[in-house]
UniProtKB/TrEMBL annotation, chain A:
It holds the Pfam family Complex1_LYR_2. It comes from the Eukaryota. One of its GO terms (biological process) is negative regulation of oxidative phosphorylation. It comes from Phycomyces blakesleeanus (strain ATCC 8743b / DSM 1359 / FGSC 10004 / NBRC 33097 / NRRL 1555). This is NADH dehydrogenase 1 alpha subcomplex subunit 6 NDUFA6. Belongs to the complex I LYR family. InterPro entries: Complex1_LYR_ETFRF1_LYRM5 (IPR045296), ETFRF1 (IPR052000). One of its GO terms (cellular component) is mitochondrion.
TrEMBL record, chain B:
Its main location: mitochondrion. It comes from the Eukaryota. Keywords: Electron transport, Repeat, Transport, WD repeat. Residues 26-218 form the Electron transfer flavoprotein alpha/beta-subunit N-terminal domain. This is Electron transfer flavoprotein alpha/beta-subunit N-terminal domain-containing protein.
Amino acid sequence: MSSPLRPKVIDLYKQLVYLGREYPAGYEDFFRPRLKAAFMKKKDLRDEEDIKKALLHGDYIIKELEAMYYLRKYRTLRKRYTNEA
Amino acid sequence: MSNPLRIYVPVKRVIDYAVKVRVNPAKTDVDRSVKHSMNPFDEIAIEEAVRMKEKDKKIEVVAISCGTTKSQETLRTALAMGADRAVHVEVKDDSTLQPLAVAKLLQAYTATQENKPDLFILGKQAIDDDASQTGQMLAGLLNWPQTTFASKVELEGQTLKVTREIDGGLETVQAKLPAVITTDLRLNEPRYASLPNIMKAKKKPLVKLTPEDLGIDISPRILTLKVEEPAKRVGGRKVDSVDDLIDKLKNEAKTLSHTSFDTGYSADCTEFCPLVDSTDYLAYETKNDAQVRKGKLYLFTVDPKNKNGLQQQQVIEGPAILDMKWSHALVENRKVLGVVDSIGGLQLHHLTDAGELESLAHCQVSEPDVLCLSLDWASRVNKDDHRIAISHSNGELSIVVPSESEWKVADQWHAHDLEAWITAFNYWDTRTLYSGADDGLFKGWDSRSQTPQFTNKRHSMGVTTMQSSPFQEHTLVTGSYDENIYFWDTRSMRMPLKTVQTPGGGIWRLKWHPTEANLLLSASMHAGAFVINTNTHEIVNSFLDHTSMVYGADWSYVHKDWVASCSFYDHTMHLWDASTTA
């Protein structure tokens, strides 16, 4: 399957792998298998519109992960550095 | 915004915030072979600089880091977040790189005209050392204004308006550039350095140099001697039933009352007989609430092995009693208990072979309108000195001596301007007598000539108790309403040897353990009763079951580590095991 969207899909995969390193439940045993499974489920998509929709969904997941990482860090630091009685 | 503005953001590579830090086996440092990342407060600093740049394109953001080669990863993250270029000051071992050295490096690098900065933005502290010094030191070295713990930054031309997070709330300050800002947690939400941006960052310029290039000596001024983990928190446990709870408290917590006795009258004094034979006798006195003039003296036998370990043997009615003490030395072959009362009298009882208290002698020490507040026998260590010292509510002290079959007042003198709560002999040198009063002073006297030797103002409230150590020749302990216990070397009363702060309540009585030189019992009024290890200054046991002020407490001489304590308003005496597991 060679289409101009292929590099975009590969980039999305690489970005999610990069984000997955920090995943709290673990990269090797939790994140990576699920990431692979999610992409494998969509591997037979041929219609361009469908692929674009899937890419947008991927971007959404990236934003969700970034937000989760930020909140986790903020909450930990707030607890650590405030004198909450 | 006409002139281009150069913002430097120093960043530090630290152990990642989510890593559980472990101490290395040598206890000299932490284990650094774990995940590292940019100090979170530095991320906030970079974010703030990048946001300012997004508002005004003429701003240049330079990230700078001092550390090993691996710091370049951190600089790459800074570039990925939006910094224009990076500077790496390479150091061989950054575990000894301290804030002052970093501040000097930053100042040295930016000293040249081509590198001149307008603004430094730093994280308020690094999450590894929590020093919170670099920004402040840098501002000091540069002689620039500093606006630390910033939660909001506004820049208008050359004027900086910063809202700071301080203990009382928020403070807004104004400064003119050039200046130093340190960022607090709530300043902004840093963006995530995404993979595409990390890739782009590889193309941005990164300059390397060394401290030698800058001519700065970075050797540490502070040496870390030891690194230790904090004490482990012991988890709580769940129990299945009330019976289970009581069983655990009795056997494991060890400070549940073994037996208790309610006399119906306010109790404030309890003393175990120190003359050890097979029976453990406990004298205990109470006051009649209605008229503070009357009281009762109880004699109990104590047997902790028995469920009903407290057996009342006798009750004697009389005037209200303020203090009592058994003599440690036999007085004419008798076991004698001295009792002082609210009408100025000293009553001596002796314990017969049948186990009863019999009146031995009475001495009217002061006028009946003056209360006797405490007494002490001189014979605790020096078995031949049978004198008794008594302190009074009018601040006077009296010495009573046996003379044939009578006990007479040998001396009496004015010692304090307020109530003299306590008097105590130096057991090792019974010529010296101590007294403590409600004015917070305690004094030392030559008891034979009644001349004062010293006046000590260490306690901030009334001095209520003192006792010479029966084991250590020059040790004296004093206690006060001010909740502090001071240990003194009697040869040098200028400063206490040590201080132990008790958990509140105020101290009424301190009693040394009968055999262990380093255990002290404290009757601490509202706070309960405590056993303190005088070597470690720690409270090794507490009895908190009294529901009212604990005034009296004493160790058993027969049953090691057992304590009787009594509380005033609930008129209850509790018998408990104070042995420590330590």
